[in-house]
């Protein structure tokens, strides 16, 4: 960053592609530094609409829309990676700083290219095979059960499914995909790591994830993770290897598998703020959203130490909920100590849609887990009855 530019001035324009909950929480941190962030999102009622410096309703997958949005900005970033990277590459050529860089985005947007990147760079990940169509699955040279992941446009459990039998493939995707062998899983873990243009790299403490099996989405997060110091050190080194080998500037969530033999491997990465870092708002000295802004503006990266152990609970729409959102039990949840709700401003609820999260902090992780478990029973996101 050219420090002759006053990043706190309204003349210094930052653009963000995506106006969902990640953008909303980024904007909340941006106010503390008097940063001016414009948002581009296809939804007229996106969570960022009322918080952005300027909100533009438009398709972030369309070349001209993204190019025109970005050409008067000093810096462009994202809160969602499925955007038009070609338009971002053109803006980068014209002198706009784009973080994460378009070449990184193009690689991460394609799960097949991601897996090949790990293979080429000796980054451990599960055995895989790339296919073009459903017809190739039966002859895959992998041990079933396997997971099929669409190469493009999958996120939050969408575009991913388990295939248990090579002869029962009626539900398989008939599209370019990655096939991965199932891991004999002990834990799912995540490290969020940041890197600025100056090359400074800082990681957040390792967290442990617990999934809602029906929705294939994170339900609970525990910080810190219950693993050995050896596993923890390996996880940090692995996350640093990935962001450095990508030569990426910004924030990178590195999701990992720990198998029952103690082997650590990369599952997937996301080049942005991530669901596995939400607890950092209250649980850590620097939140992932503040760290993202520091990284893209080439500011010194913040202290990521844990202030108090924390548990994060995702608030998902009930499986039969369709319509105007109603939050049930929030008053009961707020009676517990150390409870911090974050509602994302989404007017409409759908089954398993992320509607918010609640973080519980406590001096004892066991107590935070106990409170979060009670809150899970108390708080529901349903639809308004007509």
Fraction of residues in helix: 10-25%
Count of separate DSSP helical elements: 10
In whole angstroms, the N-to-C terminal distance is 53 Å
Radius of gyration: 21 Å
CATH homologous superfamily of the largest domain - what is it?
Answer: ATP-grasp fold, B domain
Strand content: 25-35%
Number of domains: 3
Main sheet, how many strands, which sense, barrel?
Answer: 9 strands, antiparallel
Global outline: globular
How does the helix and strand content classify structurally?
A: alpha+beta
Mean pLDDT over the residues: 94
Sequence stretches where pLDDT stays below 50 over 5 or more residues: none
* E-strand count: 21
CATH topology-level name of the largest domain: D-amino Acid Aminotransferase, Chain A, domain 1
Give the CATH class of the largest domain.
Answer: Alpha Beta
**Name given to the CATH architecture of the largest domain:** 2-Layer Sandwich
